[in-house]
Write a structure and sequence with these properties.
The protein has 17 helices and 27 strands. Helix 17 links the parallel strand 26 and strand 27. One of its GO terms (biological process) is 'de novo' IMP biosynthetic process.
Length: 474
């Protein structure tokens, strides 16, 4: 991948009396760590009180064995975060906990609301004071202030007021709830575990604890976990299915299931189609690790060109609080990738990646490959050009920084320094998912946003340039 797009968050929840729910949540968050490395949190309830621990850093940095031993209960929820709405500091770590007249309300959120300002201003007018800058606190406060008799009633009252993308885990002392927005933009699924149940942003979060995958929570649906078991309820009417296509391309782990498809198989199929569309004579097909690997394998098989790992990724380089020296910083991409010169020198390379965002990282990778002795570098991208910013929970650049928003493919090729460049077509991308195009949000490619976006947000990311904004209402 290009190291330039970041997913907002991963959520997990479990109701399993008699089980070590804190440790199970810890393992699940480990599996979901790719969805956010900025902060992590776990909350546990024993039916009487809720204990919450959260901090900045990755899962292994935040929780110790002693911490997990002190988090006792039969129900838990967890969260890993990468900020999109709200700055990067401790108060914005999740779950967010607020008191209510009937106990605690805790919320963990994956996504982004587009009406946060309106909701926040309404609460401020009612005298509410905020501790964070995240939209998650807005949701939690609205639930806590509800006059409904219980949390289920509060959810029925509050959720229809939210506009945007949201997959939520909500917990009180007695119940755990999972909710998906009516468009299903962000993923959320449910599994069974040892007489109880769990929810997770991706099925890999269920796999790691040995839970059995049941199904996705449907758009506009709520799953309630409590002493009576698992109950699904319609919370808002579903709209046009609009799962973020980048879950299939890059964000989710390849061993996760979405729309009843293993993402690994979809990505491999993308690579096979890419080989048909962008055939070129070469000696080696190599991925940009790790997310380019399945597509590169598919390309290699379809083209009959050997697969090789010409770049080795340092998997211990991620978000860090220790700043590198200027000399190390100048090494740039070499902090994360190192070329195997013997397998590159004198070779014609097909290099497969999932996307190009700004183009700077791709340019540096190609430069590094040429310095390692590559004879030719043919760049193949397993998605269409990324032209428009996201407003639903993905941290992308503003529009003018997206290289494909203002340059044609040939201009991008010259900028990154490749011998040839080919992007996968939208038709073959959709074909790889085995679902109709109408089941996805592809606004990053075509500018058709399924949820109306306020003008101030569009202006903030440069969406009103030249009057070319297309808003799809359904």
């Amino acid at each position: 991948m290009s190291f330039e797009i970041n997913e907002s968050c991963g959520v997990f929840g479990i109701y399993a009396p008699g089980e070590d729910v804190a440790k199970l949540t810890y393992y699940a968050l480990y599996a979901l760590q790719h969805r956010g490395q900025e902060s992590a949190g776990i909350a546990v309830s024993d039916g009487r009180e809720v204990l919450l621990l959260k901090d900045m850093g990755m899962v292994s940095q935040v929780f110790s064995e002693r911490d997990l031993l002190n988090l006792k209960g039969h129900m838990a929820m967890g969260h890993v975060r990468y900020s999109t709405t709200g700055s990067s500091f401790w108060e914005n770590a999740q779950p967010v906990q607020v008191p209510s007249r009937v106990g605690s309300v805790l919320v963990a959120h994956n996504g982004n609301l587009v009406n946060t300002d309106a909701l926040r201003n309404k609460l401020k007018a009612e005298g509410v004071r905020f501790r964070t800058t995240s939209d998650t606190e807005v949701i939690a406060l609205m639930l806590a202030r509800s006059q409904a008799p219980d949390i289920v009633g509060a959810v029925h009252e509050v959720i229809p007021q939210l506009i945007g993308a949201y997959s939520l885990a909500i917990m009180t002392e007695e119940k755990l709830i999972g909710i998906r927005d009516p468009y299903g933009i962000r993923p959320l699924c449910v599994g069974s575990y040892m007489g109880g149940h769990a929810l997770a942003s991706e099925s890999c979060g269920l796999d790691i604890i040995g839970a059995e995958y049941l199904r996705e929570i449907q758009p506009g649906e709520m799953a309630v976990f409590d002493k009576d078991g698992l109950d699904f309820q319609r919370i808002v009417e579903p709209r046009k299915p609009s799962l973020c296509i980048f879950e299939f391309i890059y964000f989710a782990r390849p061993d996760s299931i979405m729309y009843d498809t293993y993402l690994y198989h979809a990505r491999k199929h993308m690579g096979m189609s890419l080989a048909d569309e962008g055939a070129v004579e070469a000696d080696v097909v190599m991925p940009i690790p790790d997310t380019g690997v399945p597509a590169a394998i598919g390309y290699s098989e379809a083209a009959g060109i050997p697969f090789g790992e010409g770049l080795i990724k340092n998997r211990y380089v991620g978000r860090t609080f220790i700043q590198p020296t200027q000399a190390i910083r100048q090494l740039g991409i070499r902090l994360k990738l190192n070329p195997i010169i013997r397998d590159i020198q004198g070779k014609r390379l097909v290099v497969v990646d999932d996307s190009i965002v700004r183009g700077n990282t791709t340019k540096e990778i190609i430069k590094m490959l040429r310095e390692a002795g590559a004879k030719e570098v043919h760049m193949r991208i397993s998605s269409p050009p990324d032209k428009y910013p996201c407003f639903y929970g993905i941290d992308t650049a503003i529009r003018k920084e997206l290289i494909a928003s203002s340059r044609k493919v040939e201009e991008i090729r010259k900028f990154i320094g490749a011998d040839t460049l080919h992007y996968l077509s939208i038709d073959n991308l959709v074909s790889a998912t085995r679902r109709p195009r109408e089941d996805f949000c592809m606004a990053c490619f075509d500018g058709d946003y399924p949820v109306p976006v306020p003008d101030d947000l569009k202006m903030a990311k440069g969406r009103l340039e030249d009057g070319k904004v297309g808003i799809k209402r359904s």
